[in-house]
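I hope you will forgive my troubling you with a question about protein structure. I should value your view on which stretches of the chain appear to form regular backbone elements. Here, with my thanks, is the record as I have it:
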Amino acid sequence: MMRFGSFGKGDRLSRRRLKNWLRVACLAVVAVGFLAAAAWNNSAVGQMEGQTAADTTAVASPDAPAERGDSTPIEPSLDSEKYPIVTPMTGNMLFYVIWAVAFVGSLIALVFAIYFFRKVMAADEGNEEMIEIAAHVRAGAAAYIWQQYKVVTLFFIVIAALLTWMAFGLEVQSRWVPFAFLTGGFFSGLAGWFGMKTATWASSRTAAGAQKSLNQGLQVAFRAGAVMGLTVVGLGLLDITVWFAVLYWLVPALGYEPLGLVSITVTMLCFGMGASSQARFARGGGGIFTKAADVGADLVGKIEAGIPEDDKRNPATIADNVGDNVGDVAGMGADLYESYCGSILATAALGVAAFSSGLLLPEDVQKQIAEGAVTKAAAVLDFQLRALFLPMAMAGVGILLSIIGIFMVKTKEQADQKTLLKALARGVNVSSLLIVVAAYLLTRVLLPDFIWVSASVVVGLVAGWLIGKWTEYATSDEYAPTKNLADQALTGPATLIICGIANGMKSVWFPVITVGAATLLAFGFSADWQFNDVNLFAMGLYGVGIAAVGMLSTLGITLATDAYGPIADNAGGNAEMAGLDPEVRKRTDALDSLGNTTAATGKGFAIGSAALTALALLAAYIEEVRMGHEHWAESAVAEKAPGWYKLNEQHIAKVTKNKEVVSFLAMPAHVRHAKVFDIWKELDTSDGPVEIREEIIAEVDGAPRFVASSTELVPTESANMIDWMTYYACNLMNPKVLVGVFLGAMATFVFCAMTMQAVGRAAFGMVEEVRRQFREKPGIMDYSEKPDYALPVAISTKAAQREMILPSILGLATPVAVGLLLGVAGVMGLLVGTLTCGFCLAIYMANAGGSWDNAKKYIEAGAHGGKGTDAHKAAVVGDTVGDPFKDTSGPSLNILIKLMSMVSVVVAGLIVRYSLTALGIF
């Protein structure tokens, strides 16, 4: 088995080979840039880059191709100083600069990830026993992750085949979606792999650093966590920028039909499904692995055998340490990777959609259009690109600011949690304050007429910070809730568990209010506080998306503080098993206690960002529904003669004289009109599209209408959010929506039950194995025999692979099944139910579990008599209950929320065309 240890001595993946790989990667990047430049100079692409009429303007007469397709600014007839020309970003240097900010930012993240990895590897690895212990953990983690990737690969092959069939066979979505799906999963898995390998190399080095000083131990652990953080944001943003270059430049340069910006952003959004699927396996499987080992180690080792935590006599202790790396490092990395990419891509899609109609163009620009200084298509394209690149530019700048914050994390030799928390907070707070300034400047450059969008960014940042601080308050043993919970241990495990459940439930109120307030504020700032203005509604949704981007803009350092936790935990285990000086264990315990709080804070941050990202994805789902209608119309009537065609009861297509296909929506009230109902019902679409006679639908005053009722059809390309809600009757009185809400809420509870039962079954096997070894190898207790560490690792690995399948299928199949049965309205209800119920349940479980864990550590630090007392044993029982709460079911819920959203986006075209509602059956 090949070991990854770039720059590490004795590794089979040599430094020379890694450099060769990097050279190949650089050459590939240069090649993409060269092809992009070639596409830029291609006269067939340089003006609109595939910006089709459907993506730029809403035109009354579809038979006017010159007006619809014209995108080249005409010569100005106005004073150029008074009325500056609105030149699309494709025609000025600003475009290159903004794209380069994001692209170069991603490369800088990867460069610094390598830099921090080298710093970690240069640190002292400790004595031979420490090195041997770390090697056991590293081998176990590698064995597990490779086994997981084998299962994931098979899964991805099956899903990619289904997506290919949907794209090329059914023609219900873009043909680029299967490839986007694969790259999303690949980069997500790659980020988790690098982070996990770094963490396993860092554990003994952190313990060795703690031998010298607390600060050195903190530096090694945090720099190793920074590798995870920077790898996630670097690979995520690299994937986004390269995909944009391919779809926007390379596709036309190779002679394929250019893609519109709406098509590009929606297609890119679909690679989030790959990231979500990978995260589901990484987080869920890793969580089952680590908690099965943790519960087995604690129940048998601490309570039954009475030996310390991480004692090398415990056969499950290596499996426990392996689990920290595969669950809390690789799993959390994959989790936040999908949130990071999803928020950027959803916001980009919403920005492009917001400006597609041209109604939001500033007054001075509209005046220039009216007076002939610029075409509407050119102005629309310019603002679409500006809105698209703002979240990408913020992510690129956020990477640089995260690196600055990482360098600011250091502490004095004072082993208390407040000092350590202050050290980590310093780096996070500095990065957050700087991103506020950057958000204002970037908005000033890209969207100066919408400067208050920058306030939405600040809202997202503040919301993330508040949720993190609240989680810290709810779980840290520095504050009353956890101290009071520890007091309950004096009366036994029952009261401790009751109080912990209550604490977790109570802790939900603040994050819910925070996210709710953030949503309203972000929407209000971006929509100029016009909540009822249909034209500004899309801009408000863009504000919600940009708030999610703001929350995640400094993910490089935020994730570093989270990944630091399991590394510190492993360092403590290494120190204990190697029998280091008690002072070293005291220092690693201080780092570990801080790690529990930062991990809980990271979980709160992850679910908070998941909520805002899911809200943005909910709005972006409508854009995929729009594309689904257009794909349907194109594939159904492309070969038909010019004329009007009925596709189903409410979907109409027109083939123009030049064979262009235009899609229209007929609202429910339109087709139920007394003068229309009977003649409309006579057109039976059960055997395919039916041509509509001119006496039924005709153009009147330049707009298509039902002749009998004079009601106007709505062009699919310009339908707004309110139009879509009306079209699909997405309201609380629609039983399909209500049933979808109930199914979404139900799915979160069933999902948690599955993952909790999975941990229980896996832990049962672990407990039995540890008991067997203690029984059959009595020499373990007096160190005359060595435990078998490999068998518990194998037990957890097999259990995790087996048990993660059903929960994953639940997340993937539910949106498809609900969509096919209940249509788009049912899916909207499903996503709302999953988001609201899953958000509350995830916070409850994460905070309850974190509080139980820190209550145990608070007692182990000396409260209520310390280790070995009845209070301590009660706290251990509470901690074992909390383990699957905080490390398996709770954090997996935010992945479930985003996975269902992403699956819904990807299969929207299928649901639009083949649901029972679309077929007229239900």
In short: The longest strand covers residues 651-655.
